[in-house]
Amino acid sequence: MDVKTGYVAGRLAFRGVLCRISGISTAAHCHAVKKHSCETVFKFSQRSLYQTSTPGQHRWFCHNSTPGQHRWFCHTATPSQHRWFCHTSTPGPHVCIVGSGPAGFYTAQHILKNHKTARVDIYEKLPVPFGLVRFGVAPDHPEVKNVINTFTNTASNERCSFLGNVTVGRDVTVAELRQAYDAVIMSYGADADKEFGIPGEDLSGVYSARAFVGWYNGLPQDKHLAPMLDTDTAVVLGQGNVALDVARILLTPLSILKITDITDHAAAALETSQVKTVYIVGRRGPLQTAFTIKELREMTKLPDCRPLLDPADFAGLEDKVKSLQRPRKRLTELLIKTAQTGGATAQEAQRLAQATKEWGLKFLRSPLEILSSEDGSRVSGIRLGVNQLEGSDSSARAVPTGETEVLSCGLVLRSIGYKSEPIDDTVPFDSQKGVIPNEAGRVTGCKGLYCSGWVRRGPTGVILTTMTDGFETGKAVVDDLTTGILQPVGGVRGQEWIQPLLQKKGIQAVTFEDWNKIDSEEMMRGEKVGKPREKILDVKEMLQVAQS
Amino acid sequence: MAAAIRTKFPVLRRFSQVIFASFSSVSSPLRHGDYEYQDPKSEDEIVNITYVQKDGERIPIRGKVGDNVMYLAHRYDIPIEGACEASLACCTCHVYVHDDYSDRIQEATEEEEDMLDMAPFLKESSRLSCQITLSKDLDGIEVTLPQATRNFYVDGHVPEPH
């Protein structure tokens, strides 16, 4: 790097002690920057110097004239008031993403990589980022959370900012965001869940799997769930990966769970849990299960746990299996093998015989009514309708036969899918499908408005499905910026325009550096108790740590 | 001239020190794959590998014994994702291994096969590149990137590559 050119027309470029204080400039063309952006390497060449003549307040600007890479440094020579700010003066477009889960971050990653001057601001209603990677992925699946490293990398890009503790739709409206930003991307996911709408669904002891997951993963709104685990039988309604997750957490020995980042109160509650049997109930058959083989295999290997699969459910499937696609074939083969009672080896047979807990799959059953105990205080069982299948494979339909049966239990977890909700009156929303109507990520009829992730295509799929989706929306945004469909507007833009609105409401946005403080605090607390982290459950406490 | 400036103008020297120091201390996130960033120390260590891109472009790389095929691709900016960082929790590092070499690689574990189930455009030669370590035996190996790493159209529709 050629420092000698930091110096033009024989004049000294800098004077006095150099220090860095980042701040929001009141000048219209400057941006709020993070401290470390000032450490970014810059090239000096063909600069121009500029000096005000106000005594005691000389300001020197250094300006790299390479288009797209202009940087201004403002330096007050007044002792102890030296200020640097680092500013790209070519107004790159301003992009805003609502939601900091995988959809938000992968969309941001794609835009930052493929557009050289765009600035991306990611808004999040909680003080902490990462969405379902933090609050959805099970505590005993830490490797799935490795994507956080990729997201942290994205957030560390100097053109990327994280603004936590800002609820879009309440603290700031989508209309205001669309005024401040050239493109606004909705990536806020799905935080409600589907319901059956059957009698008894609101009894004590009936919870959504979503809330149960939020409870053991430290989602602030679910910390008071206090699920009733004083029953020997639990029923999970639904046969997806979330259903297996909650079943597995109910049955995993505490010795394994308590060294994960599971919340303290969940570990304590599970320690005194009486749940011994978990049934996972689906309305269709074994060929229509929505879970994947990795998660099923984990169930078969649960310590101190025996599978209760009825071989009759798999009668006649051995032949059918041969013609299935590989993923479904391997999954069904594993189900059939697991249903064969006794275990493959003598050792395995002994392990199963000695197990004190059990899990089972029930097929072709739909809940018709949740029954209450005599005193009406909690759930005592479920009346299930027996189904038969019409059609086959993934398009098979469950049709009631009229037959019913009762399954006794003291805990019911409803796991039939998450659900998105509209964020704001001005954003179109398809209530039937529960998504924002769009084409390739562009919101129908709203130029400059985009969507990615679950709110775009519905709440199914793993992190990497969302990755591909995020990249696709990112591409739509980059294309529209490059082809001129979106015309970036100059002047005060982006978070500089939004921050004063937030400040008026007394809202302090949490930066990524602030999140790092929360992150360190959680890891420090975790270390004391032998866990990777002890999550902070209270938003106020998060903000206290962030602002310390 | 640079030296002259630095001695004559101590402030500038300090400034350049600050900039150099901060440049070299730009922190990188948790780095698995450090080993792949080290150059081979001798010819004996070299294992030649060719990555074949989606569009057919062939990229020959001089790897070394012990290199992880996925992290080596990251070093040379070959577009293999690796979302879960080699922990068998995704299928984004999916590649096809050239027939001549598939026998020389350690057979896939059950865990790897489970994750391969999720990969679109699966073939007999499919493997997760994060599970392949280079050895002398694999000198000359070729791996091909698939058309996509995650097909999210449940009805089998194939999106246009982009």
Task: Tell me what the structure shows.
The complex is a heterodimer of chains A (548) and B (162). Chain A is an alpha/beta fold and 548 residues long. Chain A folds into 4 domains: 87 residues, no CATH class; 189 residues, NAD(P)-binding Rossmann-like Domain (Rossmann fold), CATH 3.40.50.720; 204 residues, 3-Layer(bba) Sandwich (FAD/NAD(P)-binding domain), CATH 3.50.50.60; 38 residues, no CATH class. In chain A, 29% of the residues lie in helices and 18% in strands. Chain A contains 17 helices and 23 strands. A 6-stranded parallel β-sheet of chain A has the order 11-19-12-13-15-14. In chain A, strands 8-7-6-9-23 form a 5-stranded parallel β-sheet, sandwiched between helices. Chain A has a 3-stranded antiparallel β-sheet with strand order 1-2-4, with no helix packed on it. The relative contact order of chain A is 0.15. Chain B is of the alpha+beta class and 162 residues long. In chain B, strands 2-1-5-3-4 form a 5-stranded mixed β-sheet. In chain B, helix 1 packs across helix 2. The longest helix of chain B is centred in the first third of the chain and has 15 residues. The interface between A and B is large, with 45 and 44 residues.
What structural category arises from helix and sheet content of chain B?
alpha+beta
Q: CATH homologous superfamily of the largest domain in chain A? A: FAD/NAD(P)-binding domain
- What is the rounded Rg of chain A? 28 Å
Beta-strand percent range of chain A: 15-25%
Radius of gyration of chain B: 21 Å
CATH architecture of the largest domain in chain A: 3-Layer(bba) Sandwich
CATH topology of the largest domain in chain A: FAD/NAD(P)-binding domain
* Annotated CATH topology of one domain in chain B: Ubiquitin-like (UB roll)
Q: Give the strand tally of chain B.
A: 5
Strand content of chain B: 15-25%
Q: What is the CATH homologous superfamily assignment of one domain in chain B?
A: Beta-grasp domain
Count the DSSP helices of chain B: 5
Q: So what's the overall shape of chain B?
A: globular
Q: H/E element string of chain B? A: HHEEHEHHEE
What integer is the average pLDDT of chain B? Answer: 79
Number of helices of chain A: 17
Cofactor (chain A): FAD
Main location (chain A): mitochondrion
Family (chain A): Belongs to the ferredoxin--NADP reductase type 1 family.
GO cellular component, one term (chain A): mitochondrion
